[in-house]
Amino acid sequence: MTTLSRRNLLKASAGFVPAVALGARPAQAAPAPVVTTSGIAPAALAGFDKVMKTFVTERNISCAQLAIAKKGKIILARGYQYSDGSQALPSVTPTSLFRIASLSKHITATAIMRLVQDGKLSLAAPVTTLLGLSAEADPRLAQVTVLRLIQHLGGWDRNVSKDYLYLDHQISATLDAPLPISQEDIIRYAGARPLDFAPGSQMAYSNYGYMLLGRIIEKVSGTSYESYVKQKLLAPVGITRMRLGRVLRSEAAPTEVVYSSQYTSKTVTDDSGTVVPTPYGGFSMANRGAGGGWLASAVDLVRFSRVFDAAGPVLNATSIGRMFAKPEIGVNENGSWYGGGWWVRQVPGNLNTWHDGSLPGTYTYLARLQNGFTYAALFNRREEEGTLDFDVLSPRMNAELNKVTTWPTTDLTSKYF
Predict the structure, then answer these.
(1) In angstroms, rounded to a whole number, what is the distance separating the alpha carbons of residues 314 and 234?
(2) Which of 8, 14, 151, 176 could make an S-S bridge to 4, C-beta 3.0–4.6 Å?
(3) Using omega within 30 degrees of 0 as the cis cutoff, is the peptide bond preceding 277 cis?
(4) DSSP state letter for 256
């Protein structure tokens, strides 16, 4: 920066601009951000590639992934990085790991169905019996069954009583329990409060309900939730990368991306009151577990989606049917319903199923559509104040689906599994 003399200051105030000192370099403009890619996007699918590049550029998303499968074959696998080079970020490959947030829910529902299939659990079993919960605060808790939990019919409405999985400081103060709080603390806090509606009477999305499902899986299987999923669900279809995530950046998996958010929060990892980036200590990944704690790559998710295409080593036809069955409350005003960790809609000749996921620093989307088309898109940032709408992703992808005239025949599956 050039220092102005008293004389030059007077000139500047009169409208004069001093010349740059001899030999001084003019300020250099910062390099424009660019999208770099890894992996394979066939020319026939260039439209999907363009959707992703446009999406991350418009929203300043530094890390993203896309995988597309057609009738069980992986035909596109891409990593995206949007950067001006000023930050040293790990490169994003098709197998980099992302927090997948609520895309964890269909994994948990699948584990429940596998236990039912193996004769170890009933969908009609009450949560009070399975987990030894008291219904003293609300006798209706005895009406909460496993099926109602997986379909979000359990009686908890986060718009009324808030999301118990985001109340760490409040729960800690109420129970006089030190941070970090545990799942046991959350259950004790929730169990002392009445339900928000009669179980089975309406649908209200509940992360707490899925946390309870994870506890049921552990109780019935006799092993940890993560171990059961890896052994019974992932190993049979050759998936080895997926694991539960951790909250601190220092605990990240070796190929995990860095998460981005404009927000900060008081840490939930201890009682220090330290203000931290929200993705790294502003919430508990351990407590999310079964409802939002998994790490995966996009290729892992489209690979796992094959479980629902036909009977196989994970689920039989009856179990798949139960995953997508209409709930007791029927179809909503949009013609869709919530099955086992999936939104479902009947279209001519097919059941379309989809889900999104969102955490501070995470946005994810997974869809299984007609004609055997499946895609997973993962991002290291979610919609925040001042960003553009993230919900445009799905219609943009659907528009490209209708434009494809010739599908690639090359199967990339063996490259990643």
Answers:
(1) 8
(2) 8
(3) no
(4) B
Q: CA 109, CA 87: separation in Å to the nearest integer?
A: 39
pLDDT digits (tens, 9 = 90+) for 278-311: 999 999 999 999 999 999 999 999 999 999 999 9
CB 380, CB 258: distance < 8 Å: yes
pLDDT score recorded for residue 23: 45
253 CB contacts (<8 Å, ≥6 apart)? 97, 243, 245, 246, 295
Structure token pair of residue 371: 């004609």
Rg (CA), the chain: 25
Beta-carbon contacts of 144 under 8 Å, excluding residues fewer than 6 positions away, are 126, 127, 128, 154, 155, 195, 199
CA 364/CA 361 separation, integer angstroms: 10
- Rounded Cα distance between 290 and 411, Å, is 31
How far is Cα 200 from Cα 155, in angstroms, rounded to an integer?
Answer: 7
Strand partners, 252: none
- Our measurement of the distance from residue 96's CA atom to the centroid of its chain's CA atoms, rounded to an integer in Å, reads 15
Length of the chain (residues): 417
Nearest Cα to 377, choosing from 34, 53, 44? 53
H helices within 92-163, ranges in order? 104-117, 127-131, 146-150, 158-161
Looking at the DSSP bridge assignments, the partners of residue 66 are 78, 377
Q: How far apart are CA 8 and CA 55, in angstroms?
A: 47
Q: C-alpha angle with apex 399: 59 to 326, nearest 5 degrees?
A: 95
260's tokens: 């981005």
- Measure the CA–CA gap between 341 and 233, rounded to whole angstroms: 15
CA distance 398 to 349: 17
pLDDT given for residue 56 in this prediction? 98
Cα separation values, 207 from 82, 154, 322, 363, 411, Å:
31, 11, 21, 16, 36
Are the C-beta atoms of 199 and 144 separated by less than 8 Å? yes
Report the mean per-residue pLDDT for the chain. Answer: 93
List the structure tokens of 198: 């009669």
Q: By C-alpha distance, which of 292, 296, 298, 297 is closest to 279?
A: 292
